[in-house]
Each structure stands twice: as structure tokens, then as C-alpha cells.
Amino acid sequence: MFYMLSALALKHGFSTSKHKQLIGWFNKHFVKDGTIAPKYAKIVSDAFEKRSDSDYGMLVNFTCDEVQEMFTELNDFIATIEQLLLSQ
To answer: Where is each HEPN domain found (predicted)?
Structure first.
């Protein structure tokens, strides 16, 4: 997700190595202006939180159902960002 957003940002003249800064930029320029549905801001935010928890938490386990839901959201997100990259 980070690299998809990074590609979108680069296409629009923005670059950062910070996840939170990139997420903020995405929300400001694509979610708040209505270019993309708010559900994608939540998908990105949830993914970042889960990644942080799993990287820095003591022990994080995800159920099979949770992983399947994350995978479905990821595929939806990638397809949507890909459309933005190809259309703009």
C-alpha cells in the first residue's frame, strides 16, 4: 500500500519516506476533496495500525477471517489506486 501511495504521490509531485506524512497527503488530496471514497482512508489507516502493531507489539495474532478481510481490502485498494494512476 505504501508503494502504491508513493507512486501516486510522485505522480503529483510529492515525495516522503514517512508513512504518516504520506497518509496525510493522500487524505488531504484525494479523500477530503472527494476524488476517492472515504473507505480508502480507513483501509490505509487500519493497515498502517495493524502493521505497526505487528512490527512493534509484543505478540499479535490475526485470525484467518481477519487476514482474508485485509486481503480483500488490499486488492480493492490496489485496483482503485491503479485506476487513479492510469487516469491522471
So the answer is: 1-82
How many structural domains is the chain composed of?
1
**pTM score:** 0.84
Q: Checking phi first, is residue 61 left (phi over 0); if not, alpha (psi -120 to 50) or beta?
A: beta
Taking only the tens place, the pLDDT of each residue in 10-53 is 999 999 999 999 999 999 999 999 999 999 999 999 999 888 87
Residues 6+ apart with CB under 8 A from 27: 41
Report d(CA 56, CA 87) in Å as an integer: 37
